[in-house]
Amino acid sequence: QVQVVQSGGGFVQPGGSLRLSCVASGSAFNMYGMGWYRQAPGKQRTLVATIGSGGSTHYADSVKGRFTISRDNAKNTAYLQMNNLKPEDTAVYFCYARPTLTPYWGQGTQVTVSS
Description:
It is built from no helices and eleven strands. The protein is mainly beta. The strands form two sheets. Strands 2, 4, 5, 6, 9, 10 and 11 form a seven-stranded mixed β-sheet that branches. The radius of gyration is 13 Å and the shape is globular. The model has no long low-confidence stretch (mean pLDDT 96).
């Protein structure tokens, strides 16, 4: 079983930046698909960004050009750099690791963007 631990997040003013980190256990991290979803109050969980084992990335339209997903296989860590944050980015962000078709989820971290 893969354990996924998130860090980062918090409170930031509009236009600010935050970085989320996601550490996944296992010796084959380089083969995992990684990504983030987010869930705003009263809304469904939606995809934010993904990164494949080969480094290919995919972003939701709402975050393109502002968010960057990356990975450091030597540290078993994936990152989500979030720039030019907007109030509508406020949500709980969930990281996942996918060594196979089954995703393993992190504990979630709150991101609040407000003036």
